[in-house]
């Protein structure tokens, strides 16, 4: 691997080119019309529930040692859902959003003050279904100049911002897991412990699943631990 600022820049450019070629698998959560609906109820009895769409930003940058790092937040303890949990910047799609990338970038700006002009969007990843039946689309973006990012936290939504090494989510270190059943299927919940100074963070659930997949795509290898992938069936009404 090349070293120095010039080498790191070249490395990032190569990563951008490679990730732009990545094609995620077709989403299992699309409707016959071709995409998830923003409606929360079906048009007629017996149809598949059509979940709302959301997007999260996997914001990657090079750390001081040349390692790839990802930006994470700790949600506000006052929020009604997922309060105090570690999350990726992101949220539900709104009517004015042009696409999933626009949703992720808008939410990142609202939550942590990340200027969309600093981000090079390179690809989207496979879709995930949250426990609240949101179709979550991960958007991978590269932050080439970390020094230009001056975080401004929306205290109504975010208590803290931090970053971790992306490769951590392929390693068995600092990881525990448990098997649970949901919608008639067994699946694995992963828990990653991370410490920075006197701060301790627990990265788990959907956020951990998304980051395991993102790290597998970026590093082009599976994790060092068993990963049970499941595709939940949407309920019928």
Give structural attributes.
Nucleoside Triphosphate Pyrophosphohydrolase; disordered N terminus; eight-stranded mixed sheet; 3 helices; three-stranded antiparallel sheet; globular; 237 residues; alpha+beta; 19% helix; 11 strands
Question: What is the compact description of this entry?
Answer:
This protein is 19% helix and 32% strand. It is of the alpha+beta class. The termini are far apart.
> What's the level 1 CATH class?
Alpha Beta
Distance between the termini: 54 Å
Total domain count: 1
CATH topology value: Nucleoside Triphosphate Pyrophosphohydrolase
Main pleated-sheet profile: 8 strands, mixed
Q: What would you call the shape?
A: globular
Mean pLDDT: 86
Strand residues, percent: 25-35%
Architecture overview:
The structure is a single chain. The protein has about 240 residues and is of the alpha+beta class. The protein has one domain (about 5-20, about 50-220): Nucleoside Triphosphate Pyrophosphohydrolase. The chain is about 20% helix and about 30% strand. The chain has 3 helices and 11 strands. The protein has helices spanning about 5-20, 100-110, 205-220, and strands spanning about 50-60, 70-75, 85, 90, 120-125, 130, 135-145, 160-165, 175-180, 185-195, 200-205. Strands 1, 2, 3, 4, 5, 6, 7 and 8 form an 8-stranded mixed sheet that branches. A 3-stranded antiparallel sheet has the order 9-10-11. A hairpin with a 4-residue loop joins strand 6 (about 130) and strand 7 (about 135-145). The protein is globular, with a radius of gyration of 18 Å. The N and C termini lie far apart (about 55 Å). About 30% of the residues are buried. GO terms for molecular function: coenzyme A diphosphatase activity; guanosine-3',5'-bis(diphosphate) 3'-diphosphatase activity; metal ion binding. One of its GO terms (cellular component) is cytoplasm.
């Amino acid at each position: 691997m090349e070293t120095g600022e010039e080498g790191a820049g070249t490395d990032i450019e190569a990563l951008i080119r490679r990730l732009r070629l990545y094609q995620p698998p077709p989403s299992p959560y699309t409707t016959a019309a071709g995409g998830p609906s923003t409606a929360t109820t079906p048009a007629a009895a017996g149809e598949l529930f059509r979940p709302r769409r959301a997007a999260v930003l996997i914001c990657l940058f090079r750390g001081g040692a040349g390692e790839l790092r990802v930006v994470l937040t700790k949600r506000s303890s006052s929020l009604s859902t997922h309060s105090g949990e570690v999350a990726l910047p992101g949220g539900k799609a709104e009517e004015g959003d042009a696409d999933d990338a626009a949703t992720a970038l808008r939410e990142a700006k609202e939550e942590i003050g990340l200027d969309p002009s600093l981000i090079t969007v390179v690809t989207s990843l496979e879709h995930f279904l949250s426990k609240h039946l949101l179709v979550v689309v991960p958007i991978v973006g590269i932050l080439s100049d970390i020094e230009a990012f001056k975080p401004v936290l929306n205290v109504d939504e975010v208590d803290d911002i931090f970053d971790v090494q992306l490769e951590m989510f392929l390693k068995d270190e600092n990881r525990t897991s448990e098997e649970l059943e949901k919608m008639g299927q067994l699946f694995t919940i992963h828990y990653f412990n991370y410490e920075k100074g006197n701060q301790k963070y627990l990265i788990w659930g959907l956020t951990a699943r998304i980051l395991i997949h993102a790290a597998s795509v970026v590093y082009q290898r599976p994790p060092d631990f068993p990963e049970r992938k499941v595709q939940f069936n949407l309920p019928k009404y």
